């Protein structure tokens, strides 16, 4: 796995590089600016880019813009976005088109090395990752009646909420004191009612949660 890192905080940038190299991963380049990221992508053709949301010169959305451009230049590039705190617009915008090979984590997650590395590998493999804290805070902000989800049963809403917290099927089953098979049945029903057929380009679990968040803003 070849990785480029775009982070304007030099200490975090070098710390990430050291961490990844210690795991026998190849850090092809590091950059402190969006232009540096794009140059590194062009030169090194990485598999994954780890990108800070807020970068120079304005420290607003330069990282997101650069990540989108990097994926345009290198189709299939996996991107793991790091943010210091929950930024709703960026999180929902990032996953709005194609969630495959995309991740959004809070920077504090880097300190939980095993979780961070698991997220990195999942994104590199074409999966999607949203930090459970990001999802939890967004759900808390927008918990209101939603006509788009009116067709879900109370149990299906409960399952979707636990999915949003980042729980897998087994963990959901344990929380609800039901079987894995029952959880799988509920999730299939949620996907059907939300019109989410199997699609290699997107993670339906992520799409279901983001649809909830998006409709909740209305």
Automatic annotation (TrEMBL):
Keywords: DNA-binding, Phosphoprotein, Transcription, Transcription regulation
Residues annotated as domain Response regulatory: 2-122
Segments forming domain HTH luxR-type: 145-216
Record-linked CDD domains: LuxR_C_like (cd06170), REC_NarL-like (cd17535)
Pfam family, one: Response_reg
InterPro entries assigned: CheY-like_superfamily (IPR011006), NreC/VraR/RcsB-like_REC (IPR058245), Sig_transdc_resp-reg_C-effctor (IPR016032), Sig_transdc_resp-reg_receiver (IPR001789), Tscrpt_reg_LuxR_C (IPR000792), WalR-like (IPR039420)
Gene3D superfamilies: 3.40.50.2300
Annotated positions of the 4-aspartylphosphate modification: 52
Descriptive protein name: Response regulator transcription factor
């Amino acid at each position: 796995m070849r990785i480029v890192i775009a982070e304007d905080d030099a200490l975090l940038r070098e710390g990430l590089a050291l961490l990844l190299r210690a795991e026998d991963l190849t850090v092809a380049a590091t950059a402190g600016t969006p232009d540096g990221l794009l140059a590194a992508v062009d030169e090194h053709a990485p598999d994954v880019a780890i990108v800070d949301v807020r970068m120079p010169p304005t420290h607003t959305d330069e990282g997101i813009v650069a990540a989108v451009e990097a994926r345009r230049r290198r189709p299939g590039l996996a991107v793991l976005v790091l943010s210091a705190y929950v930024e709703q617009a960026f999180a929902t915008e990032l996953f709005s088109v194609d969630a495959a090979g995309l991740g959004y984590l809070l920077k504090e997650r880097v300190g939980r090395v095993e979780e961070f590395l698991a997220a990195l590998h999942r994104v590199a493999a074409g999966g999607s990752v949203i930090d459970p804290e990001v999802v939890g805070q967004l759900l808390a902000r927008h918990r209101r009646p939603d006509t788009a989800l009116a067709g879900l049963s109370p149990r299906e809403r409960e399952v979707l909420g636990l999915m949003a917290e980042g729980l897998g099927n087994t963990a959901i089953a344990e929380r609800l004191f039901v079987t894995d098979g029952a959880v799988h049945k509920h999730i299939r029903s949620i996907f059907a009612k939300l019109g989410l057929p199997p699609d290699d380009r997107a993670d339906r679990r992520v799409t279901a949660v983001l649809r909830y968040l998006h409709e909740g803003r209305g």
